[in-house]
């Protein structure tokens, strides 16, 4: 038993040494989250749809760069992929820094901000896929679920830390600190990654992205339905709180992130024990309950509980459904498979901003959580159908 535990710890440490760079990348994604919607809406003077676009555009950029990210990691290696992604984050920081400097000219300021969001989205796409591929290369394909899970823990922990940190920075020193922080963090990560040895490129046939996308699409749709709730929460929780006259919206993101991490740490082994579909069905149901609580919440305390339930529910959906498909992709096209599966997550987050912005414009901010809950329930039913049909 001790030797087994020691081996497990060694594997985890190898994984953490790689997904640490995902943590830094998503810390850069989390820092602007609770600041930019209010900045665009209240300081630049644009409407709620444009405020949603300021967040959602990043996810669309991530979505459309997935084929490039997968091909880059499969062809040139996962370490170069992480390096290119970090350079992209540094460039995004510079563009984001220029936006508040041009605040007196709202349209140019918005355009620089949106450009920074596009670059950040593409950079995160490359880092996320490359870090997972690098982790799998280090510990073996049999530990794919663990690599995906720890990468997700790193990402959501970073977002949970980054959101209130960004608010504190903007309140204390101004919005310009957001862009500066991104550039500085990316520079730090480049210094840390440079001496690390790169894994070998896996030889073999490279499947086309579209053929891989077709293989993973049924499972990806279940992931997408569940992930829209997260996109709605990250984009509009600040404006939802403001509409109620409440403070502390960023802590909903923290509650979501903590619950997400706790669920993964405690229940990640349930995927191998109970099966990916069973875990996904249960988790999507829990997420739907959390989103319904956000819709009906009478106070910030209940909103925190709803956000925590949503995070707990969404936590295992990605690795649970991912386990059902990644084993069907050749190792030489593993990064393409990871990228194709992640497309559905990106698509959900990309449409969440504009779509829920329209819902909020017509029905108020609370209604977006009802819509998100219904979509999560649809993902649960889709997963049930896949399980019954053994797709």
Automatic annotation (TrEMBL):
This is Uncharacterized MFS-type transporter PSEWESI4_04720. HAMAP family: MFS_YhhS (MF_01118). It comes from the Bacteria. Keywords: Cell inner membrane, Cell membrane, Membrane, Transmembrane, Transmembrane helix, Transport. Pfam families: MFS_1. The chain crosses the membrane at residues 12-36, 42-61, 82-102, 114-136, 148-167, 173-195, 216-242, 248-267, 274-296, 302-326, 338-359, 365-388. It is a multi-pass membrane protein. It comes from Zestomonas carbonaria. GO terms for molecular function: transmembrane transporter activity. GO terms for cellular component: plasma membrane. Belongs to the major facilitator superfamily. YhhS family. It is found in: Cell inner membrane; Cell membrane. Residues 175-391 form the Major facilitator superfamily (MFS) profile domain.
């Amino acid at each position: 038993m001790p030797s087994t535990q020691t081996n497990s710890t060694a594997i985890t440490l190898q994984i953490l040494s790689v997904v640490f760079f995902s943590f830094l990348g998503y810390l850069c994604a989390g820092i602007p989250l609770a600041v930019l919607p209010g900045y665009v809406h209240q300081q630049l003077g644009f409407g709620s749809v444009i405020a949603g676009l300021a967040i959602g555009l990043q996810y669309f950029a991530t979505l459309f760069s997935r084929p490039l990210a997968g091909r880059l990691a499969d062809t040139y290696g996962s370490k170069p992929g992480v390096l290119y992604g970090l350079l992209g984050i540094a460039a995004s920081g510079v563009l984001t820094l220029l936006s508040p400097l041009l605040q007196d000219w709202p349209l140019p300021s918005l355009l620089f901000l949106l450009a920074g969001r596009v670059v950040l989205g593409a950079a995160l796409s490359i880092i996320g896929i490359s870090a997972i591929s690098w982790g799998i290369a280090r510990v073996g394909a049999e530990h794919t679920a663990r690599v995906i899970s720890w990468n997700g823990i790193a990402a959501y922990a970073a977002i949970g830390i980054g959101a209130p940190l960004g608010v504190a920075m903007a309140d204390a020193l101004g919005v310009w600190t957001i862009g500066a922080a991104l550039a500085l963090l990316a520079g730090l990560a480049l210094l840390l990654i440079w001496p690390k040895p790169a894994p070998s490129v896996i030889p073999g046939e490279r499947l086309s992205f579209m053929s891989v996308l077709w293989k993973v699409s049924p499972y990806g749709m279940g992931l997408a339905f569940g992930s829209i709730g997260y996109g709605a929460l990250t984009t509009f929780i600040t404006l939802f709180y403001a509409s109620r006259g409440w403070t502390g919206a960023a802590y909903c993101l923290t509650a979501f992130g903590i619950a997400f991490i706790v669920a993964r740490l405690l229940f990640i082994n349930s995927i191998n024990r109970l099966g990916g579909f069973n875990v996904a069905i249960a988790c999507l149901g829990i997420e739907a309950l959390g989103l319904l609580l956000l819709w009906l919440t009478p106070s910030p305390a209940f909103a925190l509980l709803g956000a925590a339930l949503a995070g707990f529910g969404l936590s295992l959906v990605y690795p649970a459904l991912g386990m059902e498909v990644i084993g069907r992709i050749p190792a030489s096209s593993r990064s393409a498979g990871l990228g194709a599966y992640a497309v559905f997550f990106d698509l959900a987050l990309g449409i969440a901003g504009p779509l829920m912005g329209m819902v909020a414009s017509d029905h108020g901010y609370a209604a977006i959580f009802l819509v998100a809950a219904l979509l999560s329930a649809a993902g649960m039913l889709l997963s049930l159908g896949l399980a019954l049909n053994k797709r």
